[in-house]
Automatic annotation (TrEMBL), chain A:
Coiled coil: none annotated. Keywords: Iron, Metal-binding, Molybdenum, Oxidoreductase. PROSITE patterns: 2FE2S_FER_1, 2FE2S_FER_2. It comes from Ancylobacter amanitiformis. This is CO/xanthine dehydrogenase Mo-binding subunit/aerobic-type carbon monoxide dehydrogenase small subunit (CoxS/CutS family). SUPFAM superfamilies: 2Fe-2S ferredoxin-like (SSF54292), CO dehydrogenase ISP C-domain like (SSF47741), CO dehydrogenase molybdoprotein N-domain-like (SSF54665), Molybdenum cofactor-binding domain (SSF56003).
TrEMBL record, chain B:
PROSITE patterns: FAD_PCMH (PS51387). Residues 1-174 form the FAD-binding PCMH-type domain. It comes from the Bacteria. It holds the Pfam family FAD_binding_5. This is CO/xanthine dehydrogenase FAD-binding subunit. It comes from Ancylobacter amanitiformis.
C-alpha cells in the first residue's frame, strides 16, 4: 500500500494484523510511543488526515492512501519556521517530566478545539501521564509560561527548563526502545518469555522441538542454559543487602508469571509462536498466598531449598527478614498512658505504572564487550550484577540508559538485563526484550502489601508515652527489596515523633505471589499511612486538634531521632522546616473554601505529616566528571540516570552556579558505565543530594583549576581571578575560557552524612451521603526541601507524587485471583489517575537551607507520596465519622458504612469557621 | 497491538461477497477492542468498511444506525426537535471510558457485540427499545429487541456465522421524555451503574438498567409507579446474582446505586410530567 508519513511517501506491505504504531516505528518514527499497546494511554497518538487516533489500535492496512502525522512532523503542519504552537507551549510550561507520554499528549492537545480545551478532564481522558499530576500539562494547553531566564552564576533557585525539552516535544528524545536495527544492532532478534501458569510448580520437562521448528525461531533458553548462581533482582549499593534467591531460569516456579523459558526469534511474531509451541510438563505443588498463613508451621515453603548463603532469615518459616527493636520500655509507657489507641492498617499491592515498560536491548560491540541498553535507575549496579552473574570482568560489560520513561523504584531492579545478556551470549545476536503492559502489571514487581499494627499511648495532655509498631510485609515469591523496605519502613515514620518508649516488630514474608519490590517511599508510604492515621485517631480520642497533637510530639530541630534502634549515626537534622509546613497547611485549610455543595455532601478536613532521610543508609556513591572543552564549553559526565526526576536540569544549575557561567554552556552526558567510575543509582531520592553533591565538588575543583590556569596566563594570583561567563578576569585583563581548555575535574560523593526532609499534606474532601462518592475539594502540600534549586521542577515532583498517591489512596490495587494470578493487568482495569481524577494541589516550600545537602538542598522525589493516603483517610473520617484503614477508599465500600442519618455530622463547607474536632470526637465511638 | 496470528484480511464490498464468519474469523469494525487485547485464536479479519453501510438514516419511523456507524458520527447526529430522548445519544457517548480519539474509530455495532455491561451503546439502544437487524449465515435477515442482544459479558445473541447489520430506534421512543443517571468509581471512569428512564406522553414509564447488571434489564410501568413499587419491582427483576461483580464496582454497591438512581429518575420524570 501507499501512504504518507510527515510528508514522506512510503510503499509498504503491512502484516495483516499489524497496527499502525509498529509500522510507523519500523519506518523509524520513534516519536510514536508504546505505553500500553491497548488504546488506553494515548502515548502512541498520531494524526491520520489531521485527526488524532491511537495508532496502537489503528489497523495498519487502513492507512492506505492517507496522510499520517507524527510528533516529528507536527511542526510542519503549521506555517512558518520553528515548533508547532502546542510544542512551544509544552516547552514554556514544561508540561512533562519523563516525557514518555508527551508526544501523545502534544498530538492530542494540538487537535483540540476551543470547547475541548475548556473541558480538559474529558478531552484528555485518553492520555495518561504518571509523572506530572497533569497541572503542568494543563498549564501548557492553557498557554501559561513557567520557565524563567537564566543568569550566569545565579541559576540555582530559578525555574530553568529541562535541557531535554526540545527533544521531548519534537519526538527526538531517544528512550530505550527507540533505536533502529542497524549498525551494531543489525539483525536484531526479539525475545518473548513463556511464563508460569502456576503459583508453585516444578518443571519436569520442557520440549523445545516444536518451538525450534517454528520459522524464524533462533534459540530457546531454558534452565539448562542458565547459570546456577543465585542472585537478587534488587539492586543496592551493597549486594548483600538483598537475599540471593533468584536464578535467571529456575526449575522451580514460585509465582504465576515466573519465567519458564525464553524464545529468541527474528520477529516478535515468531517469538510468540515459539512460546506457544513450547511443551512443558509441570509437577504442581501446594502454594500459600497470605503472609500470615505463610508463617504457620507446615505452610508450603517458598525457598525451603535455600541455605545460609542466600542470607534468608529463616527459609523454614518463609521469613525473608525480621526486625525487633526499640528504645525505652513500651510496657511502662503504655502503663503510664491516659489514653491508648490501637488498630491495624493495611496497604495494598500497587504498581509503578511508569509509561515506559521494562525492557532492554543487548549486543556485542566491536571489541566483543557485552553491551546492554536498558531502562534502569541503576546502570552501574546492573553492570556489576551482570559481571558477577556471568563471571565476566566489569570492563567486559557496558550498561547504559538513554532517556528513561519513568521509574518510581520499579527500575531499581534487574528484571530484563540478565536474560537479555544470556540470550546475547547464547546466540551471538543482538537481542531485544520489551515488556508488554500486561507483563508490566502482572509479572514485574509491585509495592509491598503491608499490614501495620500501631499502638499509641499518650497522656491526657497529648504527649506520647509509648509507640509500638508491628509490620507484616508480603514480599512475594522473591525477596528483592524485602529486607530494605522492612528496615526503611520501620524508620522515619516513628522517628518523626519524640517518644521515650518505642518498639518495632517487623517481618518480611515469602508468599507464592508476584514479587514485591522497591516503590516510591520504600516502605514508608505504608507505615506512614498507619502511623498518621493512628495519630489522627488518637487526636480524636484526646479531643485534640490533629495539628496540635503533631506540634506536641514531633521532633524539634535539636531532638534525637529514634526508631527500631537509636538514631542512625549519620542522620542529622540538617535543616528544620516542619514547623513552617504544619503552619502553612493549617492556615490554608482554615481559609474559606470554594463553593457550597448540595446537602447530600458531607465535608471534612484531614492532614498528615511525613519525614524521610534524604539518602539511603550505609553509602551511596556518585561521581561527576566536569570538563572545560575545546571551544570554551563544558561537558558534564555523571552516572545518575534521568527518568523525569529533573536531575539533569539540577546538575547543570549546580555546576553553572559554582562555575559562574550560564547553564547553556554545560552539556550533560549521563548514566553510562563508560563515562564515570561508579554511581550507585538514581534511587532513594539521591539524584540531587548525592549525584548533585558530586557535581558541586567537581565544579568547585574545576573552577579552582580554571582560576589557576587563568592566573598563570594573566600573571596574577588565582585569588584575583573570577570566572565571568566566557572568560577569566582579573581586573581589566581577561583570558577566554576557550584558551584554557582542556581542563578536567572529578567530584565524588559518598552519601554521608544525611539529613531529613519533611512533607505535610492537607485535604478538604466531600463525601456523598448516599453514593459514598469521595471528592477532593482542596489539596495543600507543604514541603521542606531545603534550598529549592529549581522551584518549577520541585513543584512538579510534589504534584506528581501527590497525584500518584491519590491513585493509591482512591483507585489502585493489583488484585489476585486467589491462585496467585493478577486479574487486572491493564489500564482499563487498573485505574491510574487521569486528568479528571487529580485536583489542583497548592504547593508550599519551607524556607530552609540544609547544612548537609549540596547548596542547601534536600531530596524531594519520593516523599510527597507518603502523607497523602492518611491525610485522605483522616479527612474522610472528619467528613463522615467513618474510619477507613485499608486503601483504596472507594465508594462501593464506603457507601455502606455511612450513617443513614447525616444530620449530626453535616456542616456547611468552609464557612470560614474552623470546625472543632472536639465536637466530632464527642460524637465518635 | 499487533495481532500476530492474523494472516489474512477480507474486505467484502457487498453482501454477495460476504461469506459468513467461521472459526478463526473476527469481524473488524473499528478495531478498537480487537486490537486492544491479544487475540491468539484469530486468523482472519473480515473488514466491514467496504460494505459502505450508510451510518445514520433518520426517517419518519425513527433512526437506523448501521453497526459500522462510529461513535463520533452518532455523537454528531442532529435530531429533529421533537426527538426529546435523543439527548440520550450524547449522554451515552460521553459515558465511554474511551476518549474522543477512540470515538472516531469505535463503532456502535462493535460496542453492542462486545456485550460488556458498561457498553454505553447497549444502554442507549436498550433504553430506546431498539431493534437489532442481523444478517444470518444463510443469507437472510432476522430482527430481535436490542434489550436481549447482550446476554452477559462478552456474550451476545449472534449465532455462528451471523453479523450485526444495524440497530433501529423507533420514533415513538425517541419522542419520549428521558432521564439519565450514571455512577462510576472514578470521576470520568467506566460506568458501574447506568440507569435511563423514559416517559411516553401517555404516561408509560420505562426504566432501563445497564452497567450495574450482567445484561440489560428493563422495567415497564403504566402509569408512573410510586417509590415503593419501583423499588419492589427492581428487587424482583434483578436478583443479587444478576448484579455485575468486577473491579469497577461491588455488586451490593451497584444494587444500592441502581435503587438510588432509579428513584432520582422516577422523581425527575414524575415532576416533569404533563
Amino acid at each position: 500500500m501507499t501512504f504518507r508519513v510527515n510528508g514522506v511517501s512510503y510503499e509498504v506491505a503491512p502484516r495483516p494484523g499489524q497496527c499502525l504504531r509498529t509500522l510507523l516505528r519500523e519506518l523509524g518514527w520513534f516519536g510514536v510511543k508504546k505505553g500500553c499497546d491497548a488504546g488506553d494511554c494515548g502515548a502512541c497518538t498520531v494524526h491520520v488526515d489531521g485527526r488524532p487516533v491511537h495508532s496502537c489500535l489503528f489497523p495498519a492496512f487502513r492507512a492506505e492512501g492517507h496522510c499520517v502525522t507524527t510528533i516529528e512532523g507536527l511542526a510542519e503542519t503549521v506555517e512558518g519556521p520553528g515548533l508547532h504552537p502546542m510544542q512551544q507551549a509544552f516547552l514554556e510550561a514544561q508540561g512533562f517530566q519523563c516525557g514518555f507520554c508527551t508526544a501523545g499528549m502534544v498530538m492530542t492537545a494540538a487537535a483540540l478545539d476551543q470547547a475541548q480545551k475548556h473541558d480538559l478532564p474529558a478531552a484528555l481522558k485518553g492520555n495518561l501521564c504518571r509523572c506530572t499530576g497533569y497541572r503542568a500539562i494543563a498549564d501548557a494547553i492553557e498557554g501559561q509560561c513557567a520557565v524563567e531566564p537564566d543568569a550566569a552564576g545565579a541559576s540555582v533557585g530559578r525555574s530553568l527548563p529541562a535541557p531535554a525539552g526540545p527533544a521531548i516535544v519534537t519526538g527526538a528524545a531517544r528512550y530505550t526502545m527507540d533505536v533502529a536495527p542497524a549498525g551494531e544492532l543489525a539483525g536484531l532478534t526479539h525475545m518473548k518469555i513463556l511464563r508460569s501458569p502456576h503459583a508453585h510448580a516444578r518443571i519436569l520437562r520442557i520440549d523445545t522441538a516444536a518451538a525450534l521448528a517454528v520459522p524464524g525461531v533462533v534459540a530457546v533458553l531454558t534452565h539448562e542454559d542458565a547459570p546456577a548462581r543465585l542472585f537478587s533482582t534488587a539492586r543496592h549499593h551493597h549486594v548483600t543487602d538483598d537475599v540471593d534467591d533468584t536464578r535467571v531460569l529456575d526449575t522451580l516456579l514460585r509465582h504465576v508469571g515466573q519465567r519458564v523459558a525464553a524464545v529468541i526469534a527474528e520477529t516478535e511474531a515468531a517469538a510468540e509462536a515459539g512460546c506457544a509451541a513450547l511443551r512443558v510438563d509441570y509437577e504442581l505443588l501446594p502454594a500459600v498466598f497470605d503472609a500470615e498463613a505463610a508463617m504457620i508451621p507446615g505452610a508450603p515453603l517458598v525457598h525451603g531449598d535455600k541455605g545460609p548463603e542466600s542470607r534468608i532469615a529463616d527459609p523454614a518459616r518463609n521469613l525473608v527478614a525480621e526486625l525487633q527493636g526499640g528504645v525505652g520500655d513500651v510496657e511502662a509507657g503504655f502503663a503510664a498512658a491516659d489514653v491508648v489507641h490501637e488498630a491495624t492498617y493495611t496497604s495494598q499491592r500497587v504498581q509503578h505504572a511508569h509509561l515506559e515498560t521494562h525492557g532492554a536491548i543487548g549486543w556485542r560491540d566491536g571489541e566483543g564487550r557485552l553491551v546492554i541498553r536498558t531502562s534502569s535507575q541503576t546502570p552501574f549496579l546492573t553492570r556489576d550484577a551482570l559481571a558477577t552473574l556471568y563471571d565476566l570482568p566489569r570492563a567486559a560489560v557496558r550498561v547504559f540508559t538513554e532517556r528513561v520513561g519513568g521509574g518510581f523504584g520499579g527500575k531499581q531492579e534487574m528484571l530484563t538485563e540478565d536474560i537479555v545478556a544470556l540470550a546475547v551470549m547464547k546466540t551471538g545476536r543482538p537481542v531485544k526484550l520489551e515488556y508488554t503492559r500486561a507483563e508490566q502489571f502482572a509479572f514485574s514487581t509491585s509495592r509491598h502489601p503491608m499490614r501495620v499494627g500501631v499502638k499509641l499511648g499518650a497522656t491526657r495532655e497529648g504527649r506520647l508515652t509509648a509507640l509500638a509498631l508491628t509490620m507484616l510485609l508480603d514480599t512475594g515469591a522473591y525477596g528483592n527489596h524485602g529486607p530494605g523496605v522492612m528496615y526503611h519502613g520501620a524508620g522515619e515514620c516513628i522517628a518523626l515523633y519524640r517518644c521515650p518508649n518505642k518498639k518495632v516488630a517487623a517481618r518480611a514474608v515469602y508468599t507464592h505471589s508476584l514479587p514485591s519490590g522497591a516503590f516510591r517511599g520504600y516502605g514508608l508510604s505504608q507505615t506512614i499511612f498507619a502511623v498518621e492515621s493512628a495519630m489522627d485517631e488518637l487526636a480524636r480520642k484526646l479531643g485534640l486538634d490533629p495539628f496540635a497533637l503533631r506540634r506536641l510530639n514531633v521532633i524539634g530541630p535539636q531532638d534525637e531521632m529514634t526508631s527500631a534502634g537509636g538514631g542512625a549515626h549519620d542522620v542529622e537534622i540538617g535543616s528544620y522546616g516542619l514547623d513552617q509546613c504544619l503552619d502553612w497547611v493549617e492556615k490554608a485549610l482554615d481559609a474559606p473554601g470554594r463553593e457550597a455543595l448540595p446537602e447530600d455532601w458531607l465535608v471534612g478536613r484531614g492532614m498528615a505529616a511525613a519525614m524521610i532521610d534524604t539518602i539511603p543508609p550505609r553509602g551511596h556513591v556518585a561521581q561527576t566528571r566536569l570538563m572545560l572543552a575545546e571551544g570554551g564549553g563544558f561537558e558534564l559526565l555523571t552516572g545518575t540516570a534521568e527518568f523525569g526526576n529533573g536531575t539533569t536540569t539540577v546538575h547543570r544549575q549546580i555546576a553553572a552556579t559554582v562555575l559562574g557561567v550560564p547553564v547553556d554552556r554545560l552539556h550533560v552526558r549521563q548514566s553510562d558505565t563508560d563515562i564515570v567510575a561508579h554511581d550507585t543509582g538514581a534511587y532513594g531520592s539521591t539524584g540531587t543530594v548525592v549525584a548533585g553533591e558530586a557535581t558541586r565538588r567537581a565544579a568547585e575543583r574545576l573552577a579552582a583549576a580554571i582560576r589557576e590556569a587563568g592566573a598563570a596566563r594573566l600573571r596574577v594570583s588565582p585569588a584575583e581571578c573570577r570566572i565571568e561567563a566566557d572568560a577569566v578576569r582579573a581586573g581589566a585583563d581577561a583570558v577566554p575560557l576557550a584558551a584554557l581548555a582542556p581542563l578536567e575535574a572529578t567530584g565524588d560523593a559518598g552519601g554521608s552524612p544525611r539529613s531529613v526532609a519533611f512533607n505535610v499534606q492537607g485535604f478538604e474532601v466531600a463525601v456523598h451521603r448516599r453514593y459514598g462518592e469521595i471528592r477532593i475539594l482542596r489539596s495543600f502540600h507543604a514541603a521542606d526541601a531545603g534550598t529549592v534549586i529549581n522551584p518549577m521542577q520541585c513543584r512538579g515532583q510534589v504534584e506528581g507524587g501527590v497525584a500518584q498517591a491519590i491513585g493509591a489512596a482512591l483507585y489502585e490495587e493489583l488484585t489476585l485471583d486467589g491462585q496467585g494470578a493478577v486479574t487486572n493487568a491493564s489500564f482499563r482495569s487498573y485505574h491510574i489517575p487521569a486528568f479528571a481524577d487529580v485536583p489542583h494541589t497548592q504547593v508550599f516550600f519551607a524556607r530552609t537551607q540544609d547544612r548537609v545537602g549540596p547548596l542547601g538542598a534536600k531530596s524531594m522525589s519520593e516523599s510527597p507520596y507518603n502523607p497523602v493516603a492518611p491525610a485522605l483517610a483522616n479527612a474522610i473520617f472528619d467528613a463522615t465519622g467513618v474510619r477507613l484503614r485499608a486503601p483504596p477508599f472507594k465508594a462501593d465500600t464506603l457507601y455502606a458504612l455511612l450513617p443513614a442519618d447525616d444530620g449530626r455530622r453535616f456542616h456547611a463547607p468552609s464557612s470560614g469557621e474552623p470546625e472543632s474536632p472536639l465536637e466530632n470526637a464527642a460524637n465518635e465511638d | 497491538m499487533d495481532l500476530n496470528s492474523v494472516t489474512a484480511i477480507v474486505r467484502p464490498r457487498a453482501r454477495s461477497e460476504f461469506a459468513p464468519p467461521g472459526a478463526g474469523d473476527a469481524i473488524l469494525g473499528g478495531g478498537t477492542w480487537l486490537f486492544s487485547e491479544p487475540q491468539p485464536g484469530v486468523r482472519r479479519l473480515i473488514d466491514l468498511t467496504d460494505l459502505n453501510w450508510p451510518p445514520l438514516q433518520a426517517s419518519a419511523s425513527g433512526l437506523s444506525i448501521a453497526a459500522t456507524c462510529t461513535v463520533e458520527r452518532l455523537y454528531g447526529f442532529d435530531p429533529p426537535p421533537d426527538w426529546r430522548a435523543a439527548s440520550l445519544i450524547a449522554a451515552c457517548c460521553r459515558s465511554f471510558l474511551a476518549s474522543f480519539k477512540i470515538w472516531s474509530m469505535a463503532t456502535v455495532g462493535g460496542n453492542l457485540c462486545l456485550a460488556l455491561p458498561a457498553g454505553p451503546m447497549i444502554s442507549l439502544c436498550a433504553a430506546l427499545e431498539g431493534t437489532c437487524v442481523i444478517w444470518r449465515a444463510d443469507g437472510g435477515e432476522r430482527r430481535m429487541p436490542a434489550i436481549d442482544f447482550a446476554r452477559g459479558p462478552l456474550d451476545n445473541a449472534l449465532e455462528p456465522g451471523e453479523v450485526l447489520r444495524a440497530i433501529e430506534l423507533p420514533v415513538e421512543a425517541l419522542r419520549r421524555q428521558a432521564a439519565f443517571r450514571r455512577a462510576s468509581l472514578t470521576p470520568l471512569g467506566r460506568s458501574g451503574v447506568l440507569v435511563i428512564g423514559t416517559r411516553a406522553p401517555d404516561g408509560r414509564f420505562a426504566l432501563t438498567v445497564t452497567a450495574a447488571t450482567r445484561r440489560p434489564v428493563q422495567l415497564r410501568f403504566e402509569p408512573m409507579p410510586g417509590a415503593r413499587l419501583l423499588a419492589d419491582r427492581l428487587a424482583t427483576a434483578i436478583p443479587d446474582a444478576l448484579y455485575h461483580d468486577d473491579i469497577h464496582g461491588r455488586p451490593d454497591w451497584r444494587r444500592h446505586m441502581t435503587r438510588e438512581l432509579a428513584e432520582e429518575i422516577r422523581d425527575e420524570l414524575a415532576e416533569g410530567a404533563g
